Amino acid sequence: MSDGIPIYGVTAKDLPALLATLPAAAAAFVTACGFKAAEGHHVLVPGEAGDLAAVLFGVEADEAVHRDPFLIGKLAGLLPAGLYRYASGIRDPFLATLGWHLSAYRFTRFRKAETTMPELRVPDDVDGERVATIAQAIALGRDLINRPANDLTPSALEEAARALAETHGASFAVIRGDDLLTRNFPLIHAVGRAATEAPRLVDFTWGDPAGPKVTLVGKGVCFDTGGLDIKPSSGMILMKKDMGGAATALALAAMIMRRKLPVRLRVLVPIVENAIAGNAFRPGDVISSRKGKTVEIGNTDAEGRLILADALALADEEAPTLLFDFATLTGAARVALGPDLPPFYTMDNDLALAIARHGAATNDPVWRMPLWDPYDALLKSKVADLNNISGGPFAGSVTAALFLRRFVEKAGSWVHFDVYGWSPATKPGRPEGGAVQAAHLLFDLLETRFGPGAGAADDMPSQAAVFEPVLH
Q1: Closest by Cα among 129, 121, 100, 132 to 431
Q2: Is the pLDDT of residue 458 over 60?
Q3: In terms of CB atoms within 10 Å, which of 24, 92, 211, 237 comes out highest?
């Protein structure tokens, strides 16, 4: 591959050897600029005619404790427009390419992009179609999270799910408003009934009915005031992202369907707005669930687990092989692990190990947390089968996961991801704003288990590849 301005990844140790290969004037220019190949720093190397001849970028040394395979991708937001290629010093061409395209994402629904983005030629050993699948799906999820609540209303989120389903020929259904009561989804109805737009449950299926059943459930709270237990303004400012679980489920579904994995996929998205009105559900209310368990409302701001409970109960009825749920569920998860490392919960130890391995291999990190049985007693209620909160300050993410576990019995394996759905600051591959967490790693895991060449060990996850910048 010779087309494109070359990008050289270089360590401080290897910089002198690289400079020796450049024309003398170019090497002198790099030295005069004070470039020392520090991690994340770059320098533009001019050609004899004053054009841009090369880019040098400082990468991590071999002995570095932490390496970010997306690091060099930050150039997508730093370089002038043009066509570039990775020339040398790239340890993982796929993740470096994916990192470039994830870094190039811009949310442009309400204003145009200010500059023309540079383009990267896909390396010869990278599957560009696979990278396109991942990058475009993550862009879809980011777009949904970044849309404000006056734009991404419950009906708009429903339409986004419908558009995705129709694109891939999936069977689509939705239950809205009071029909949720007649169809036995009382918790979804209770949480969303005070909003201007009715609550609803999106349900679509795709793939071979005889294939392994993979079901995704995503929390779709388009805005969360906290309900009658209202949040302070500081806690409400980012609540447009409270449908980040739904965005994650739809992004993963897009990857699965575009790559035509041989599974029977089902996607369930309970969609509500947790609003305040005279008919809002109240602290102290006791509400039945689809599963028949009665739930005392200890706090109306713990609404996500309520709508997930009904959706998980429905998903569990057909005993899927794998059941994954995604939710921006607790602040406690962020206190424990921060915004970049979502906790996950499962009773399947082998699957947990596979998830950890694929998370590391795809640079989509997660961390297993315990379903600690003794804490289950914290959900006791004096008037109902259980309370929706523990009533104490400790282990909030764990007790939320234990609440959800009460509604899953038949699934072969169930995993709950307590995602944050937001990048507070720009990092390589992760621009500030909506974040899709755990979808890439699960796609990699599912492809390894069920895709071409299935049967490979889960500790040998596949690697991937990309195309051109995605602007949305």
Answers
A1: 100
A2: no
A3: 92
Is there a contact between 465 and 97 (Cβ–Cβ < 8 Å)?
Answer: yes
d(CA 367, CA 343): 5
Nearest to 397 by CA among 340, 345, 436, 347: 345
Measured between alpha carbons, how far is residue 121 from residues 6, 55, 82, 289, 332 in Å? 10, 14, 10, 52, 42
Token representation of residue 136: 């475009």
Q: Which pLDDT does position 2 carry in this prediction?
A: 54
Instruction: Write down the pLDDT at residue 456.
Output: 52
* Beta strands at 386-387 and 294-296: parallel, antiparallel or unpaired: parallel
| Phi-psi map region of 158: left, alpha, beta (phi>0 left; psi -120 to 50 alpha) | alpha
CA within 13 Å, CB half, 72: 30
Cα 73 vs. chain centroid, distance in angstroms?
19
Q: What per-residue confidence (pLDDT) applies to 391? A: 85
Nearest CA to 92 out of 366, 357, 361 is that of 361
Contact criterion met (CB below 8 Å) for 183 and 208: no
Please state, as a whole number, how many other Cβ atoms lie within 10 Å of the Cβ of residue 464.
Answer: 26
> CA-to-CA distance for 285 and 17, rounded, in angstroms?
71
d(CA 188, CA 211) in angstroms, rounded, equals 29
pLDDT, tens digit, 9 for 90 and up, residues 194-212: 999 999 999 999 999 999 9
Catalytic residues: 231, 305
What backbone phi and psi angles, to 5 degrees, belong to 211?
-75, 170
List the one residue out of 97, 225, 145, 236 whose CA is nearest residue 432.
145
